[in-house]
Amino acid sequence: MKCEQALKGMTDALDGELSPGDQAALEDHLARCTDCRAEWDRLQAVERLLREAPITPPSAGFTGRVLARLDRRRRIWQAALGGLALTAGMAAITFLRVAPAVWTLPDLAGGLSALSRTGSALFTHLTDAAGTLLNSLCLTARALALPVAPMVLCGLTAALVGSLVWLGLIRWLQPARVSVRR
């Protein structure tokens, strides 16, 4: 038996889980190895100390405080997950409402495809392309400002109202706080 096996055998012996054959091999190893014998004596001393130590009961209200803390952590975790799900849902709804308006801008798509087709002529007509790009951005901003701004504002308002309803619901579902004496 090697020292590593002997250490595992020692912990099994202290737990009463060592077979008679393994017990004999461990005792044989301990008789020959002074380092393992010293470790065995230390482990037995700790085992005796723990067995003889008095068991003190928990203080009054300990169980209640622990359960209240666990319940509070669970409610905070559930509220955070619910708020995250609500925010993600509102963002998805806002995106789905704004995306069609962006895809229906033919001027932007036409301007970008014209820029990609210019190839080598891009360097010679750099000023014209920059002007076209600036004009396209201005047209896009004007086109988006009117239809998208109210949608974004409505989406943000819906998200705010949904969040407030969610927080109100969470507070309504929480049990009344119980004061715990310490």
Number of strand elements:
0
Strand content: under 5%
Q: Count the DSSP helices.
A: 7
Secondary-structure class: mainly alpha
Instruction: Tell me, rounded to a whole number, the average pLDDT.
Output: 79
Give the uncertain stretches in residue-range form: none
How many whole angstroms does the radius of gyration measure?
37 Å
Features of the shown structure:
single chain; 182 residues; mainly alpha; 2 domains; 83% helix; 0% strand
List the helices and strands and how they pair.
Blueprint: H1 3-15, H2 20-32, H3 34-52, H4 62-103, H5 106-117, H6 121-124, H7 126-173
Molecular structure report:
The chain has helices spanning 3-15, 20-32, 34-52, 62-103, 106-117, 121-124, 126-173. The chain is an all-alpha fold. It has 2 domains: 3-52, no CATH class; 62-173, no CATH class. It is elongated. It is built from 7 helices and no strands. Helices cover 83% and strands 0% of the residues.
Short structural description:
It contains seven helices and no strands. The two termini are 54 Å apart.
